[in-house]
Amino acid sequence: MHPESAALPGLPPRQPAPRQLDPDQQTQAELAPQDHADGFVRVRGARENNLRNVSVQVPRDAIVAFTGVSGSGKSSLAFGTIYAEAQRRYFESVAPYARRLIQQGHNPKVEEITGLPPAVALQQRRGAPSSRSTVGTVTTLSNSLRMLFSRAGTYPASAAGRLESDSFSPNTAAGACPVCHGLGTAHTVTEASLVPDPDLSIRDGAVAAWPGAWQGKNLRDILTVLGHDVDVPWRKLPKRSRDWILFTEEQPVVEVNPQRDRVAKPYKGRFWSARSYVLHTLADSKSQTMRERVLRYMETGPCPECGGSGLRPEALAVTFAGRSIAELNGVPMTDLTEILRPAAELTGAGAARRSASSGEATEVAVAIARDLRQRIGVLLELGLGYLALGRATPTLSPGEMQRLRIATQLRSGLFGVIYVLDEPSAGLHPADAEPLLAVLELLKSSGNSVFVVEHNMDVVRRADWLVDVGPRAGEGGGEVLYSGPVPGLAEVEKSVTRPFLFDGGGRDSNGDSNGIDGGGSAARNPEAWLTLTGIRRHNLRGLDARFPLGVLTAVTGVSGSGKSTLVSQVLADVAGMHVGTESPGAEEPDAETGETQGDRTQVREVAGMDAVDRLVRVDQKPIGRTPRSNLATYTGLFDAVRKEFAATEEARARGFGAGRFSFNVAGGRCETCQGEGFVSVELLFLPGSYGPCPDCGGARYNPETLEVRYRGKNVAEVLGLTVDAAAEFLADVPAAARSLAALREVGLGYLRLGQPATELSGGEAQRIKLATELQRARRGHTLYLLDEPTTGLHPADVRLLMAQLNRLVDAGNTVVVVEHEMDVVAAADWVIDLGPSGGDAGGRIVAAGAPAAVAASPDSRTAPYLARGLAGRQPDA
């Protein structure tokens, strides 16, 4: 009897494993509607993306883990097929006129699914939300808190009437502060920001915020005509003159006789004060470069009108338990629940009134306070009590965001649904994953099914059922290798997941570690040290940190301890300013948080940075936001391909240059689909119809362009090649071969050259960026920063990633990774562990040293998990 045919405890015996079934031989009776009551969801003939006519059955009322290497098809099965079909069926029950208002998904490519209950999806959100998104808005707790103040707050005697709940939100017209428009942050100019060096004269450029070239000289000449001395140091000018030059709203027009050019004629010149010029440029300029330049001369801080709350004064005047809504939004949830306790436990509450004098001792206050405390309790159980409702979500770690979304669903109290979760452990420290597993069990015990797409083997081991998809990625995957209780996967030799689940983390037959470190050598010794003293940002308060150079360093700690702040923000800012590669407009207020770089990062002293001459940040942000961006264009290899096509005899005879073979510009592309290869038709109350372009058939190019062939293939056919196939096809094209070799080294050989950026996962995007960097010439002394690079990666893919990181270090570079995967941390040369907890209880370095030293630290919450990871790297006795 095969292991996969065993019955799940608590469920009836099931049919033979799907991997043994031929969909063509499977009878309709096996998937008949009467089987709905046997506790299984049955899928037949799934062909979404790379799925190869998959048929599989999975139990309801159980935790089911979908595993497989990145790109194997597990998400296509769990989300693209099962969840998409459940969503489609729900939309069919909605009135047609209402469907027009809902963004609908797609109809999955599947013959039939039976036994399918309603489904709820919790997917990874790759894009960062705006600063208007907070812990309170994500969890909807802000709605209840606003209602509490509106209906049961204590209003001042001068209040004209009771405010509506919208008046307590900075995101509505009724509640937003008129000065900062609800952002809580004001951008202003001062004399110090406009004139950074008061020892300079106006002629020498004292007013740095003014434009350069002719415009700057024009303003200087106008000041001369107006009687101002442009040759004395700025600080020696009368204050009245300085204020007028910088801040006046007047715009006098004078006749200027320029002395710079003998042929120049007199002209009428209009004066702009420095502040007027800056504000005008921000408001009207279409040049991003100019906008970024003037933003450097603005100062950012809390709005003086609302004190940073983003609310109008009348809303801030209302209190509950003696505090304004801004104050309650600013306290940790552990404190908030105690503040609400007296109201929630109040006995003998009176009836509420519709007037502003209704007060706090009413039934409404009791009901809302009790509801708030119950909902906050779920977040406290998940270890998020240190967060405040007003905390902006862009400042949260991925693990914190993941738990917030899960807590929101847990509180909903749904019964009999399938929860489909995309890597729920992503971004979580092993200590934070423990309460997550308890949450998943609670969802199951509440009468629900939990389907998780997961790479964390600790989570997979705790599942009731396992569906392993593979064996490889892309065209080499799309098959269900196994479906059954977890122990049964041990017998499936084709599974790439099996050795990591059962054989000590991927140890080979000789007992040696296959090495999640990618075969890296023994621990390397630092060449030098980079020291940052007095770091202040978020929960880092006066922190001193030392980073070894020339080695691989892993920064660890529980979610919210300050890891990403230290590496991806502080270290990135400091190194970027040193090497001169900070992003354009580094002082520009962040689109998400409203802070500028100077406001966000404070470091008292930096030492050792001279040993770094280049900074590279490799993150999981998309390589493009439209289908026009793809792997070939991002890596630059498509430039080499287009040149090869342009060099063919046919292209030269027709006068086609390299631009002719771009699908992003007119000329060679198909104009019907504008080079996108597909057309969409909105069907109002039905899901939109997407299909290949009727003119080019999805090729993206017009017929004349496709007639040009290079080694027997047209440009569309080359874009359709996988990286593996293209590596052979373009082996003698050096520029392309280099890129393709790097992509294969990071495990992306299954991707198509023309695969749109929108179809790539965060892990795939990060590896593409790493491959793009690997193809460049080695020069050493580069600082590489990676934030949780293993997120979204199967352990087999992590091995490939670590091999490339070790290559970078061996070439004389420094790699610093923020990481939760203990096998990666155990393979590092140096470990910096932050904590001991998250939020205000974190922000300290509790242990630093070689992995073995940190694993022995009694103060580190990472230590026991790291010790287990180190033990897994040792050969079995």
Q: Could you walk me through the main structural features you see in this protein, from its secondary elements to its overall organization?
A:
This protein has 877 residues and is α/β, with parallel strands linked by helices. Helices cover 33% and strands 16% of the residues. The strands form eight sheets. The chain has a six-stranded mixed sheet, sandwiched between helices. A six-stranded mixed sheet has the order 20-23-24-18-25-26, with helices on both faces. The chain has a three-stranded antiparallel sheet with strand order 2-1-4, covered by helices on one side. The chain starts with 39 loop residues before the first strand and ends in a 5-residue tail after the last helix. 46% of the residues are buried. Mean pLDDT is 84; it is low at 1-34, 506-515 and 582-599.
